[in-house]
Amino acid sequence: MIKPNESLFSASHRGKHRIYIGMAPGVGKTYRMLQDAQALKEEGIDVVIGLLETHNREETAEQAEGLEKIPLLEVNYQNKSLKEMDVEEILARSPQLVLVDELAHTNVPGSVREKRYQDVEYLLKSGIDVFSTVNIQHLESVKDLVTKITGIVVRERIPDRLLDEADEVVVVDVTPEILQERLEDGKIYDVHKIEQSLTNFFQYRNLVALRELAFREVADNLEELAEEQSGKKGSNGIQERILVSISTNPHSSRLLRRGARLVSQLKGRLYVLFVSDPDRFLTKDETLYIEMCESLCQELGGEFLRVSHSDVVKTITEVAQQYHITQIVIGQTRQSRWKLLLKGSIVQRLIRSLKDIDLHIIATTNN
């Protein structure tokens, strides 16, 4: 748990947030959340369920018995009636604590807020405490790593800052062997999905890697908390500043996430730089891609910098000096032999220009 000495139900304007995180579906996040909620109800805490996904798991449904459920909001979309969490109804009910499952969920198009985590932030700002659940693969910065591990692209993601800003993070863990047994016993998915799951996402090696990732992520948060309590910001007292240089290359978002992981591990600050060529107009698709990278940068808590200049290396050097950058993340570049003979590679020029800054050259080919 993060920040165990701070009372979750202390009186303050902003609500407290506890996140239950695990390596995969079926580890028992929702079950544990409901258990804790039942115990708090016994102590006199006013608890309601804002959104619960049992996935037809009987044991989970049993844990919810006796807890008040806020009726879901019906939303019409493409001639279908879909249901979402009714945030306004929760606010009107004004409980001390609300339970919200599947934090990374994307709301029905046309909803007041696009993502469920934004609904949760709205509830927190209104002074209501929230328990929520999420799997490690839904963190924005690990998207590329999870794809590499599992071969699956996770579409629904949350900003890493939610984990950093949470008042408590509870890791709900079982061994990969037990999780596979639960799957085979039909306790996670319907029978017709079991074989496919075992040969895809729920492969043993995938579960081992995701489990390690979940523990590592929470360990980083614990280390950060210890540093805050001791007043230390790192061994040398200097905050790392990571600069990610992006382009219109479709792999730039991968560089951005890699930089964000470095920032998280080093407890530093993130800067993202796009150097636009003043003699070249971006296409519509390129413009949209750079806007997406800027939005991603902001979600990851970084500062986006856009500079118009014909010399990329000179611009990176000047920005690095201006913002006191300590490490730079760039992608592999494919330059013609003619350009290499005339100017040398971008990496070589950066090494010559930046004597005291570490360079991370990231492969940008598909894995």
Q: What would the CATH topology of the largest domain be?
A: Rossmann fold
Which sheet architecture does the biggest sheet show?
A: 6 strands, parallel
The mean pLDDT is 85
Extract low-pLDDT stretches: 1-7, 336-344
CATH class value of the largest domain: Alpha Beta
Q: Compute the gyration radius: what is it? A: 23 Å
What's the helix-strand series?
A: EHEHEEEHEHEHHEHHHEHEHEHEHHE
Strand segment count: 13
Through-space gap between termini: 35 Å
Tally of contiguous helical segments = 14
Fourth-level CATH superfamily of the largest domain: P-loop containing nucleotide triphosphate hydrolases
Name the descriptors.
367 residues; alpha/beta; Rossmann fold; 2 domains; 13 strands; disordered N terminus
Verbal overview:
With 367 residues, this protein is an alpha/beta fold. The protein folds into two domains: 212 residues, Rossmann fold; 122 residues, HUPs (Rossmann fold, 3-Layer(aba) Sandwich). The protein has 14 helices and 13 strands. Strands 3-2-6-7-1-8 form a six-stranded parallel sheet, sandwiched between helices. Helix 12 packs parallel to helix 14. The longest helix is centred in the middle third of the chain and has 27 residues.
